[in-house]
Amino acid sequence: MPKIEIYSSPLCGFCYRAKQLLNRKGVKYSEINVLLEPGRKSEMIQRAGGRTTVPQIFIGTEHVGGCDDLYALDREGLLEPMLRAHATEGAA
User: Residue 31 pairs with which residues in a beta bridge?
Assistant: First the structure.
């Protein structure tokens, strides 16, 4: 499986929903809590092209965006192919 990272905050409903979707897909992810690790927020902002809200989700090196972006990919049938494509890249 690809490396999936989600920058989040414990009080964020959108973070919870994004993690729910990833859990339903059966994928493992690394969670970076920007409240517990405030120094990582600037890293998130830089990686996310200036976006300052959580969650910010990365699959492999690709920035997916936030919760709504993740759900949109899933609705459009693009999330699972993305997960498979990055899993294949990681195995090579």
Answer: 6
